[in-house]
Specification:
Length: 70
């Protein structure tokens, strides 16, 4: 998905975003839904969002291998 020259930077960015969303935003939103509505609603929305976002995998395109220049 990323070229060789930006692969390490992309990995760091994706890992950082995953930590912020997984350990920060998601638990906060689940707690907020538990306070305002109920936890069942929060878990339902989280599951629907996970299923919807997982469909984005089909949009990924394979990179062509780099050719060696002499």
């Amino acid at each position: 998905m990323f070229g060789m020259n930006v692969r390490s930077m992309a990995t760091g960015f994706i890992f950082g975003c995953g930590v912020v969303v997984g350990w920060g935003i998601t638990p906060y939103l689940l707690g907020l839904s538990g306070d305002l509505v109920n936890f069942k609603f929060g878990i339902l929305v989280l599951g629907m969002g996970t299923v919807a976002v997982s469909r984005l995998v089909f949009l990924l395109q394979e990179l062509q291998p780099a050719t060696i220049r002499e």
